[in-house]
Amino acid sequence: MSARDDILGAIRAGKPAMNAPAPAVPSYDESYPQERDGLAALFAERLTTMGGTWHAPTEGQNLDDALQEALADKLGKPFEDAVIASNVPEVAGNRTISENDDPTTVHDVDIAVLRATFGVAETGSVCFTEKELTVNAVAYLAQHLVVLLDPAEIVTNLHRAYQRDDFVNARYTVFHTGPSATADIEGVLVRGAQGVRSLTIIPTGGS
Amino acid sequence: MSTNQPDPAETIQSKTATREPQPRPAKAADGKRVDHARSAKQFLNAPEHAKSHDTRVWAMRTKRDKQAHTIEEWEELRELASQIKTHTLTNLDSYLEEFEANAKANGIHVHWARDGAEHNRIVHDIFDDHDVKSVIKSKSMLMEECGFRHYMDSVGIEIVETDLGERIQQLDGEDPSHIVVPPVHKMRSDVASLFAEKLGSDPDNDDAHYLAGAQRDATRPLILEADAGMTGANFAVAETGGFVVCTNEGNADLSANVPNLHVASIGIEKLVPKAEDLGVFIRLLSRSALGSPITQYTSHFRAPKQGGEMHIVLVDNGRSKRLGMKQFWSSLKCIRCGACMNTCPVYRRSGGLSYGATYAGPLGLILNPSFDAHRYSNLPFASTLNGSCTNVCPVKINIHEQIFGWRQVLAEEGHLPWTKKTALTAAGKVLASPKGYRAAIKTTNSALKHLPRWALYNRMNAWGEGREMPSPPDNGTFHDWYKRNRLNGQAKTTTAGDGK
Predict the structure, then answer these.
(1) Considering only alpha carbons, which residue of chain A is nearest residue B162?
(2) Are residues B451 and B305 in the same domain?
(3) CA distance A182 to chain B (A)
(4) In terms of domains, do B295 and B439 share one?
(5) Which of B321, B352, B370 is the last residue of a domain?
(6) Does residue B224 share a domain with residue B95?
(7) Under 8 Å between Cβ of A103 and A28
(8) Which of A200, B224, B337, B387 could disulfide-link to B400, CB 3.0 to 4.6 Å?
């Protein structure tokens, strides 16, 4: 007998004989803000507690300037020297990546700029699939991540998030909630464990 | 070097930090019974470490409470999670088949392993086929169960743990002591000396930021050079054929996304029917574990990346057997959050390594005996049965009742050590006879009052090690009081303190 048949056979022979239907799961989001600004404010608040930065561009400011303003003092080197890989048309960047790149080649990136498919107010999370990432690894090998998020694309909570079809269709779907973090050494919180050192969200509508 | 690394001159903390040597409880030899009490005592002999451990673990419990209280529907979520797991486990065969079919349709290779040894062989074969020499791996309790790293050591394939905590434990040659925070028993001074020896960092700088940075810098080249990546899974979704991995460091995403080959080891109990079910579990998981609303990264793998290859090994390793155990099957609902460990007074004060097993704390008490009843027969006694574990469990496993249940099973199957067996048999006889009980209480109370300490606190009195015996009441036993005040005819009216 194959391991598969052995295991399935043992389960069939031993599983508890009871009729336990799957429960219906409510969305639990009646108490969330209904209007866009309220939801965005809640998102920004939760993002901040998870170590992310909400950086709204000032009136008329272009995204390149907003990016520089948000990242300049985080880089540890002059902004002009930063390797910026942008996957969005709004930001030019100076390093091109394409989906056939070997993932190990993107480790030189200082700042990766991506657009999120949507955000989750409950946790301050942003969602990407392989389509936004191009090379999945860039979102982890880059030193810093800058994310454009359309405030119209913020859902209330995780129940709503999982009602979307990304998880059924994409090869890879990921929530990022703040930057990479660890508290494995004496409970001291360190941002920038193995992945990105910072995560900045710039709210801006889709292009 | 790291860019935003703190200036060591400003952050150096070694002058005030403890230099107490790290306690290293003895591990039971193969085939021998784990002596939790003795190992716990070895841990407690390092008071700075014991205090730090207790404080940090309790801090996680406190943060968990705070998070839980922000969610109005928290108790409903726990109930839903429990029901979804009951539904899945009672239909596990068909959900596994559905999962397998969908995963295969997505282009994933699916393997099945009856036990740890078979799992290790399967992964070894995959690695051989791809000429894999070095592997980056994220934390997986299942792979700990399988002794995976030791196996790979023996066949000369290098495994690099990418979770900081797990890497610390790997470099130190120690097992993880906590399922979420593997080195929670270590102080930063321990990590500083370890990294100085293994990574060449400054032995006098024990700042956590500096140490984490040193490990990041040391591990990054290994990540870029690895031939394959391995992850576990927190959940597997039958409907999509995909699986979910939750980390705070993003290290599972590095392990899965940098090399072309990704192998995921998944316990068969990790199944949930639908993607929508994840809403319930993801909302509960990190809130229960660390008291954060969600892990920094929640990653859903459904198909290999473009040009990549993905394998899943579905592992039984005793799970199907446990599913058939009437008293214990619901322990398969466990989502490995560690909340029961953080709340347990015994775990907090004994350290995870004292359990000498893959799983420490309350969940360890109910999981380990199903792997090896004799070796872990002491563990179900490492509990006060206070029920706190059950109260914090996000999937509502009746943990403390199962701990008690295991005590019965292990006693019936003859796995208890001689001292425990003899003491309990004597106690059973005494408790079964009212006269004998009364006589014993009288003798004990008199003994407690009059015997010198050396006669009371010795090897025969395990309870008295580290505890004071209760002082006997001055006015005799409850039975004496009852005889005086209630037994003959009408109840006498007494006021409080009358009996003095």
Answers:
(1) A194
(2) no
(3) 6
(4) no
(5) B321
(6) yes
(7) no
(8) B387
Whether pLDDT at B488 is above 70: no
Domain-embedded: residue B401: no
This complex has an ipTM of: 0.97
End-to-end, the C-alpha distance of chain A in Å comes to 57
Instruction: Give the nearest chain A residue to B301 (CA atoms).
Output: A172
- Residue ranges of chain A with per-residue pLDDT less than 50: none
B220 contacts in chain A (CB < 8 Å):
107
- Condensed to tens digits (0 to 9), the pLDDT of residues B85-101 reads 999 999 999 999 999 99
Examine the domain organization and report whether B111 and B240 are in the same domain.
yes
CB of B296 within 8 A of CB of A176?
A: yes
Q: How many domains does chain B have?
A: 2
Secondary structure (3-state) at B479: helix
Q: Give the domain range for residue B474.
A: 434-500
CATH at residue B27: 3.40.50.10420
Average pLDDT over residues B306-318: 96
Residues B165, B307 within the same domain: yes
Whether the pLDDT of residue B461 is over 80: the answer is no
The answer to whether B278 contacts A167, with C-beta atoms less than 8 Å apart, is yes
Domain assignment of residue B309, yes or no: yes
Q: Decide which of B321, B344, B362 is a domain's last residue.
A: B321
Tell me the C-alpha distance between B361 and B347, whole Å.
Answer: 5
Residue B488 lies in a domain: yes
Q: At B479, give phi and psi (nearest 5°).
A: -65, -40
Question: Quick one: B262 and B118 in the same domain?
Answer: yes
Q: Can you give the pLDDT at residue B489?
A: 57
Q: B203 and B112 in contact (C-beta within 8 Å)?
A: no
Global pTM value = 0.90
Q: What is the pLDDT of residues A13-46, one digit of tens each?
A: 999 999 999 999 999 999 999 999 999 999 999 9
- Residues B157-215: pLDDT tens digits? 999 999 999 999 999 999 999 999 999 999 999 999 999 999 999 999 999 999 999 99
Distance CA B388, CA B129 (A): 48
d(CA B404, CA B198) in angstroms, rounded, equals 43
For residue B96, being part of any structural domain is answered with yes
